[in-house]
Amino acid sequence: MRGGTPPERPFFRFACNHPVPAPVWPRMNRSTTGTRSQRVVGATAAVVLVALAVTVTVGGKAPVVTVAGGVSAAGPALTLSGMRNTYYIPRAGSPVRDDTPGKYEIALKAREPHPVVKNVKVSIDLSVLKGKADPVWVDKGNKCGMTGQVMTCTVDVEPGAVFTPFTLVPRPGAAPGPAGAMTVTVTSPTTPTVRHTTQVVIGAPVITARQAAKRTGVEPGSGIQLAPAFGNRGDTGIDGGLSLLVEASGATLRRLHSNCRYDKAVAPTKAQCDFPGPLPPGAAFKTDAPFTAETGATAIHGRISYTVLRAHETFGRTRLPGSAPRGTGAPLGLRPVDGGGSDFAPLMYWHADQAMSDLDFDTTLINDLQAVGFTIKGRVGETVDAQVPYPRNFADPEMAVTLPEGVSLVTVPPGEHTSDMVYCEPGGSGGGPAECHGYQVGGTWVRVHIDRRVEGARGSVHALSGPKADPDRENDTAPITVEYTG
């Protein structure tokens, strides 16, 4: 896959596509500040009507159509995904953020069974930016260049191509508010034409999320509560809806809120709640009830995270379908809060699009060293290597390996293997368990010879506890088994 990336910008990718219902949101009072710049044209107003349009080919609500051009419906075709519907250009000299707009990324994919499309022309009509913003970086790697107010890039899609054609800098004095439409047109000799229209707005919201402090000493199986909070520190409001996405690892979510969707009816780990807005400049809100995550019985670490993003954009993040299970309790609402504190922070390079917050936690099992068993596989008479897994929650992995009956240790001199691998050695007394050390990038291994077949033979790997108190010594040992392959 070919692509170009502007300098000093990290690469983020997401993907979603989902019609957003309108659950319960207490209507936020509109601000009279920056009214011109608050108006964001809806996605439906962005549709470009093209004569003889035959197939919608976007993975979302983006206004993209394929134009009939004498190409077979079963032949090659291209799709655009994750395209912006609204593109905010921050005003020059804005005190609340840098002057660089978010990345305008173009993602193309060829339709199977024709995964390669060569010589694809991508034209971007930038006339809407005249007098408002200027390209300061152009993706020469994808042969992007300007002719008047139109930028054209040439790419090969094999089977995809993701690139950022330009980086913009706003002009001082540009009038705030909706500026018009920017149209992307994709053509090739073998595929139908694809168009996408983005509404450009001068001025930008700055979405923030309240950052959560790490929690320690959490009891496994207990509940952790988190009430998301978010705001807008920009000079432009969001009239469209917002989505709140919640995800848990090392824990499961309780299915509480009736206007939220969950990925599973039992023990879900993802939730999505949609609100119609608006989110004016200077406003901040907190959910009127928390999400509750139940930590796993064996969890050592975990995370509960949430993302707030504009609902009519995709940004590649997968959203939950309308048929997903709903919560069983009262609907989730919002109440105003003060979002001016330092704990409300934007997401770098994505100020106008989304904000995130992570609540990391450690359970009381933080010092519980747990050995991990493994299987030796091979034929009788064969010499084989097996990786010795590092214990869970180790500091300095030191392990003692007692081999199953019928299996003997083979010593590997240091010069006979790469330096980023470690092999188990005979015990100090020349007998008993082998000594296995770490930590190396290539892992710790044991080389053995399978002398004879012994059905049901089992050995053991024992993790040596460190100086910290280990609350459960019984799980410091795990079994080693043998799988005979012939």
Integer tally of domains? 3
CATH class of the largest domain: Mainly Beta
Strand content: 35-45%
What about the largest sheet?
8 strands, mixed
The appropriate CATH architecture of the largest domain is Sandwich
- Rg for CA atoms: 29 Å
- By CATH, the topology of the largest domain is Immunoglobulin-like
* Count of alpha/pi helices: 1
First-last Cα distance: 43 Å
Using the alpha-carbon principal axes, give the shape: globular
Percent helix range:
under 10%
Unreliable residue stretches: 1-70
State the fourth-level CATH superfamily of the largest domain. Immunoglobulins
Structural class: mainly beta
Secondary structure tally: strands: 36
Overall mean pLDDT score?
83
Q: What does this entry look like structurally?
A:
With 486 residues, the chain is mainly β. It has three domains: 168 residues, Immunoglobulins (Immunoglobulin-like, Sandwich), CATH 2.60.40; 160 residues, Immunoglobulin-like, CATH 2.60.40; 117 residues, Immunoglobulin-like (Sandwich), CATH 2.60.40. It is built from one helix and 36 strands. The chain is globular and about 80 Å long.
